[in-house]
Design brief:
The complex is a heterodimer of chains A (238) and B (113). Chain A has 238 residues and is α+β, with helices and mostly antiparallel strands. Chain A has helices at residues 2-8, 14-30, 35-51, 57-87, 92-104, 153-160, 197-237, and strands at residues 116-117, 125-130, 135-138, 140-141, 162-170, 173-182, 188-195. Chain A is elongated and about 85 Å long. Chain B has four helices and two strands; from the N terminus they run αααββα. Chain B starts with 11 loop residues before the first helix and ends in a 7-residue tail after the last helix. Chain B has a two-stranded antiparallel ribbon. By secondary structure, chain B is mainly alpha-helical. In chain B, 58% of the residues lie in helices and 5% in strands. Chain B has helices spanning 12-20, 27-38, 44-56, 76-106, and strands at 60-62, 72-74. In chain B, helix 1 (12-20) crosses helix 2 (27-38). Classes of the chains: A alpha+beta (238), B mainly alpha (113). Chain A binds chain B through residues 5, 16, 20, 22-28, 30-31, 36-37, 40-45, 47-48, 52-53, 235, 238, and chain B through 1, 3, 26-28, 31, 43-49, 51-52, 56, 65, 67-70.
Chain lengths: 238, 113
C-alpha cells in the first residue's frame, strides 16, 4: 500500500512535486497508509492537476472541459439514436410474432403478394421462408424480386429464435427487419421489415441538433473559462 | 491583502492554523497534532492541499528543511486570521449555547414547544 501511495505522488503536477514531493514522501513513510489515504491522494492529485495555478493550466482545463462536453454530446446522441433505431422495429416485432404463431399452429395466414415496393414505400412487409430458407410468400419487391437476405441470418435466427437486423439489400435502401423462427407446421421463418428512410432522416436531424448543441456548449464553456481565469488573475493581483 | 475565505469551521486550513499556533511543525507532526486535539485525521493529500493554499495566500511560511522534513510556521497574517476565526467561532458557540439553553428552559415536562 505504501508503494502505491508513493507512486500516486507522480500523479501530481511536476512543479508541485518539485515543491512538496520530498516532504510528502517522508510523511507517507511514517503514516499508516490505508485505502482512504490512497483515495485522498488520488483526489488531491486530480485537484492539483485541474486547479493548482501554474503556467499552461488553462490549456489542461480547456482540453479536459472540451473532451468532457464532447463525450456528453456523443453519448446523448448515441442513446437517442439507438432508442430511435429500436423504435423502428415496431410494429414488425408484433407482426412476425403473430404470423409465426398463426403459421405454426396451422391457422390460415395470407401474405398479399408483392404489394410493397421497399424503395418507395414506408409500409411494413412480410416474407415467409420455409425451413430450408426458400421464400414461400413475400409481400415485398425490390427491382421486381424479393430481396435476398444476407447469408447466415436465418441460421443465426434458427439458433436464437429471433433476430433484429438492419438490412441493406441494395445501396441507399436500409430496412429495419425482425425475423422469428417457428417449429410447428414444418418449421420456417417469418421476416417483417420496413424502410428506415424516415428514421434515418430523423437521425440526420438529431445529428445536426447535437452538433449545434456541442458548438454552443463549447462556446459557453470557453467564455466561462475565460471569465473565470480573468477573475482569478484579477483577484490574485489585487 | 490575504483572502479571508480560506478557513471554515473544522476545515483543514483552520485545523492547520490551529496546529501551527503552538509553534512550527512539519507535515507529519501537524497530522498527529490535529488528530490529537480534534480527532480528525487529515490524510496527506488533503493536508498538503491545504498547506499549499495557506502558503500561497501568505498565512503560513516554510522554514529550512531538516532532513526530509520541512517545518511551517504562521505568518503575522495567518496569526491574525486564526485569532479572527477563533473569535468568530467563540461568538457562534456562545450564541448557540444561549439559544440551546433558551430552548431547554421553554421545554415543559420534557416536551419542546
Amino acid at each position: 500500500m505504501k508503494t502505491v501511495a508513493q507512486l500516486l505522488l507522480k500523479l501530481y503536477p511536476k512543479a508541485w512535486r518539485v515543491r512538496y514531493r520530498e516532504e510528502m514522501s517522508d510523511l507517507l513513510d511514517n503514516h499508516r497508509v490505508t485505502c482512504h489515504t490512497v483515495m485522498d491522494l488520488m483526489i488531491g492529485a486530480m485537484k492539483a492537476q485541474l486547479f493548482w495555478e501554474r503556467t499552461g493550466l488553462w490549456r489542461i482545463q480547456f482540453m479536459l472541459g472540451c473532451a468532457l462536453l464532447s463525450m456528453v454530446c456523443l453519448l446523448g446522441y448515441a442513446v437517442i439514436q439507438q432508442d430511435m433505431r429500436r423504435g423502428a422495429n415496431f410494429p414488425q416485432q408484433t407482426i412476425v410474432h403473430q404470423a409465426a404463431t398463426a403459421i405454426a399452429s396451422g391457422a390460415s395466414f395470407h401474405v398479399p403478394e408483392g404489394t410493397v415496393n421497399v424503395k418507395s414505400s414506408l409500409s411494413p412487409f412480410v416474407i415467409v421462408y420455409d425451413n430450408s430458407g426458400a421464400v414461400a410468400e413475400s409481400s415485398v419487391r425490390l427491382n421486381g424480386h424479393t430481396p435476398a437476405l444476407p447469408v447466415g441470418v436465418l441460421d443465426y435466427t434458427r439458433g436464437h429464435g429471433i433476430d433484429k437486423i438492419t438490412w441493406q439489400p441494395t445501396s441507399g435502401t436500409r430496412i429495419a427487419a425482425v425475423i422469428e423462427h417457428y417449429d410447428g407446421n414444418g418449421g420456417g421463418f417469418v421476416l417483417s421489415g420496413r424502410s428506415l428512410r424516415v428514421v434515418e432522416n430523423q437521425e440526420t436531424l438529431l445529428l445536426r441538433i447535437v452538433q449545434w448543441v456541442w458548438v454552443g456548449l463549447l462556446g459557453t464553456f470557453s467564455a466561462f473559462l475565460y471569465a473565470f481565469r480573468r477573475r482569478r488573475c484579477a483577484s490574485e493581483s489585487s | 491583502m490575504p483572502r479571508p475565505d480560506v478557513t471554515r469551521f473544522a476545515d483543514p486550513s483552520f485545523l492547520i492554523l490551529a496546529s501551527l499556533s503552538t509553534g512550527p511543525k512539519h507535515g507529519y507532526a501537524m497530522m498527529e497534532d490535529i488528530q490529537a486535539f480534534s480527532q480528525i485525521l487529515l490524510e496527506p493529500g488533503t493536508l498538503y492541499g491545504a498547506i499549499n493554499r495557506l502558503e500561497e495566500r501568505g498565512f503560513i511560511r516554510p522554514l529550512e528543511y531538516s532532513e526530509r522534513r520541512r517545518p511551517y510556521e504562521l505568518t503575522a497574517a495567518g496569526e491574525a486570521l486564526f485569532r479572527e476565526r477563533v473569535t468568530l467561532f467563540e461568538k457562534m458557540s456562545s450564541e448557540g449555547r444561549r439559544r440551546m439553553n433558551l430552548r431547554l428552559s421553554r421545554a415543559v415536562g420534557g416536551q419542546f414547544p
